[in-house]
Amino acid sequence: MHDQALVLFSGGQDSTTCLAWALQRCARVETIGFAYGQRHAVEMACRPQVLGGLRRAFPDWAARLGDDHVLDLSLLGQISDTALTSGRAIELQANGLPNTFVPGRNLLFLGFAATVAYRRGLSVLVGGMCETDSSGYPDCRDNTLKAMQVALSLGLDTRLVVETPLMWLDKADTWRLAAQLGGPPLVELIREHTHTCYRGERGQRHPWGYGCGQCPACALRQRGWEAYAAAD
C-alpha cells in the first residue's frame, strides 16, 4: 500500500464508491470537489456528510483519509449552456447527446485535480467516469481518460496515473462493488447521504436514495439498485 491518491469526489454514488476503492488500496487519500454552477449544487452540501460518515463507520479508512479541497470553477457554468447549469428541460440534442453534457467538464476537472495532486505530492487521480452508464458523454470514455493521463504526465513532467474503477461497470455492478468494499454500512451511507439527481431534489426518499425519480441520473440509479437488490 504505497500509492497516494486524489479522488474527484462530487458527493454522488459513483465518486463515493471510488473513494472507498481508493481508501482500501492507497496509503493516503485526499479528495477534491468542484463548484461550477451546477443545478444540483446540493451535492456540495452532501460531500461533508459523506466524508464524516465514512470516518465514523470505517476507522481504518479514516486514518488514511486526508484533506478535502473544493475549487470554485463557476466560470464553467458561465460558459456552458446545458441542463446541468441552468433550469432547462432535460432532453436529447441533435448530436445524440443529452443536454446534461457539460463540454470540457471532466477535462477541466482532471487538469485542476492534477495541479493540486502535483502540489500535494499525490501520484494517482481517481475518478468515477464510466462508459457503460455515461449517457454517451465523450469525456467519460476510456480512451479520453488514457489520453489525459499521458498529457498530464507529460505536461507536469511527473508520472500521474488516472484510475477509473467504474469504467466498465453498470449501476448494479457499482452497488455491488460498494457492498464488497464496505458491506451494508457503505451501501446504507450511499443510499442516505449521497446525491446524484440532476434536478437537485432531496425531498423524496426512494429505496435507492433521494432524488426526483425522473431525471436520467435517478433512472440509472433506480434501475441499478433494483437489479442489484434482485440479484443480491
Walk me through the structure:
With 232 residues, the chain is of the alpha/beta class. The protein has a single domain (4-195), classed as 3-Layer(aba) Sandwich (Rossmann fold). Helices cover 47% and strands 13% of the residues. The protein has eight helices and seven strands; from the N terminus they run βαβααβααβαβαββα. It has helices at residues 13-25, 42-57, 59-62, 74-79, 105-120, 142-156, 171-193, 216-231; strands spanning 4-8, 28-35, 65-72, 124-126, 161-163, 205-206, 209-210. It has a five-stranded parallel sheet with strand order 3-2-1-4-5, sandwiched between helices. The protein has a two-stranded antiparallel ribbon with strand order 6-7. α7 crosses α8 (216-231). The radius of gyration is 17 Å and the shape is globular. 42% of the residues are buried.
